[in-house]
Write a structure and sequence with these properties.
With 281 residues, the chain is mainly α. It has one domain. Strands 1-2 form a two-stranded antiparallel ribbon.
C-alpha cells in the first residue's frame, strides 16, 4: 500500500463521517445565521485551494524530501508490529503538533505562525465548517503531514493510516457544535469522571474553550488535538465549566483573502505599523 493509497482511503472514510455530522448540524439548525459573506468566502477558499492544490503539493514535497534525504531508510521500520506502531506514531505526531500549535498562539515570538493559524480561530462560531477554515499554507507547517509522511516512508503505513483516522475523527468531533461532554459536565458525579478523562484525551468542551475568549474562553490553553495529557504535562490544560462567552478572536478581523492566502496577501495592521515606526525611530 502506497502513501497515496493511505491518503485516498482515509479521505473516503473521513468525508463520509464529516458528511453525516454536517447533515446532522443542518437538520438540528446548528448552522443558521452563522455565515456571513466573509465567512463563506474564507472557508470556501481555504477548503477548495487547500484540498485541490496545497495538500497534494505538500504530499509530493514531503515524499520527495524524505526520499532525497533518507534514501537508505525507505521501509526501515516496516517490521514494527501494528500494536506498537500505532501509539508510537500517534504519540510522536501529537507531541510535535502540540509544540508547533503552542508557538502559533504566540504572536510576539512567532508572528508568522500566528498569522497562518489565526484563520482557524477567526470564526465567531463553532461547527464542522471550522475544520476546513485553515490557511492554505498551514498544511506545509503542521507536523501532521511531516510525521505521518515520515512514518509511511519508513514502512509504518498501517500505523500511519490508523493515526490519520484517529486525528481526523477527533478533529471532526471536537469542532462540531454537538458536544457530547456537556451532558456529563452538568452532572456532579459524571463531571468528576469527565475531569479524569480530560487529563488523557481532549473533549469537545476543551477544544471549544480553545476557540473562545472571555468567560471560559482560553485560546492559550488546550493545544493538543487528541492527547490532552501533553497539556497537563506542560501546564496548559484548562477544564471548562461550559461554553466560552465568545468564539473567535477579539478585535477587528482581517480580510478573507488574507486569512486564506497569507503570506501571499498581507496588509499590516495598525499595531504592526506602529511597531515598525517605533523600530525605525
Amino acid at each position: 500500500m502506497t502513501s497515496n493509497d493511505v491518503v485516498n482511503q482515509a479521505n473516503g472514510v473521513i468525508f463520509s463521517v464529516m458528511g453525516v455530522v454536517l447533515v446532522a448540524e443542518l437538520c438540528a439548525g446548528r448552522l443558521k445565521t452563522l455565515f456571513t459573506k466573509h465567512d463563506v468566502l474564507t472557508t470556501a477558499t481555504c477548503m477548495l485551494v487547500g484540498m485541490s492544490v496545497m495538500r497534494p503539493l505538500a504530499g509530493l514535497l514531503i515524499a520527495h524530501l524524505f526520499a532525497l534525504l533518507l534514501p537508505a531508510y525507505a521501509g526501515a521500520l516496516s517490521a514494527i508490529p501494528l500494536w506498537s506502531g500505532i501509539p508510537l506514531v500517534l504519540l510522536t505526531t501529537e507531541f510535535c503538533f502540540y509544540w508547533v500549535h503552542r508557538m502559533a498562539h504566540n504572536p510576539k515570538k512567532h508572528p508568522f505562525l500566528y498569522r497562518l493559524h489565526r484563520t482557524h480561530h477567526s470564526a465567531s462560531f463553532m461547527n464542522i465548517s471550522v475544520f476546513w477554515r485553515v490557511n492554505v499554507f498551514w498544511t506545509f507547517v503542521t507536523p501532521h503531514g511531516w510525521v505521518l509522511g515520515l512514518a509511511i516512508y519508513l514502512g509504518m503505513t498501517q500505523a500511519a493510516a490508523v493515526s490519520i483516522l484517529v486525528i481526523m475523527f477527533w478533529n471532526i468531533f471536537t469542532h462540531s457544535d454537538f458536544r457530547w461532554d456537556d451532558w456529563l459536565r452538568r452532572r456532579p458525579r459524571a463531571a468528576r469522571v469527565l475531569r479524569l478523562i480530560e487529563h488523557v484525551v481532549v473533549t469537545p468542551g476543551m477544544h471549544h474553550t480553545h476557540h473562545g475568549y472571555g468567560r471560559d474562553g482560553k485560546s492559550y490553553r488546550n493545544f493538543a488535538v487528541f492527547f490532552s495529557f501533553y497539556d497537563f504535562l506542560f501546564g496548559t490544560i484548562h477544564h471548562p465549566q461550559g461554553r466560552p462567552a465568545q468564539y473567535g478572536l477579539p478585535g477587528a478581523e482581517v480580510g478573507w483573502l488574507e486569512q486564506a492566502l497569507y503570506p501571499l496577501v498581507w496588509r499590516k495592521t495598525k499595531a504592526e505599523n506602529d511597531a515598525s515606526t517605533d523600530a525605525d525611530s
